[in-house]
């Protein structure tokens, strides 16, 4: 699922988020049992969860439990994909009552909160994940989508910069970060123009950025965040 974001004063474009369905392309919420298959998956890559020796024992425990919990992850992800946000949230809460630190289910719960319109709770959930598992890039990416939706491009940029530091190969975060930089550039050029800057120099740049950031009218409307 792709989340629509408005920037002011600037054209709209969508940040990609990881989403809960293996069939929904490019989004901040989703897929595969116990391992992120692609950037849009809701499943965290277990190999990235514990990058230090201090967490080796916890990694072993998580790997041992992964297959046992795969059905729970799949069930919650499928509920999210079907738009049954409340049921997904209830199932995630029930699971986390017994497995409170499980990063995968906590991530899915954050997605459920976001889809249910509980933005501040979703921010808290993703922030706590970044504190407990700072190696994971996906929670930072999801935070960035929320911040950008709120128009807070500086915080979105900071979150995405953290995501790509943690995983330099996380392509969706790089793309999102490029979009944020472009929006910030648009705003700066617009401010310069409003304060007496040179129209001959600024207008072509603004037009190029507007063309870059404005979604093509021919593209199909993406599924809205739920």
From TrEMBL:
<protein>
    <submittedName>
        <fullName>Tetratricopeptide TPR_2 repeat protein</fullName>
    </submittedName>
</protein>
<feature type="region of interest" description="Disordered">
    <location>
        <begin position="1"/>
        <end position="27"/>
    </location>
</feature>
<keyword id="KW-0802">TPR repeat</keyword>
<dbReference type="InterPro" id="IPR019734">
    <property type="entry name" value="TPR_rpt"/>
</dbReference>
<dbReference type="InterPro" id="IPR011990">
    <property type="entry name" value="TPR-like_helical_dom_sf"/>
</dbReference>
<dbReference type="Pfam" id="PF14559">
    <property type="entry name" value="TPR_19"/>
</dbReference>
<feature type="repeat" description="TPR">
    <location>
        <begin position="137"/>
        <end position="170"/>
    </location>
</feature>
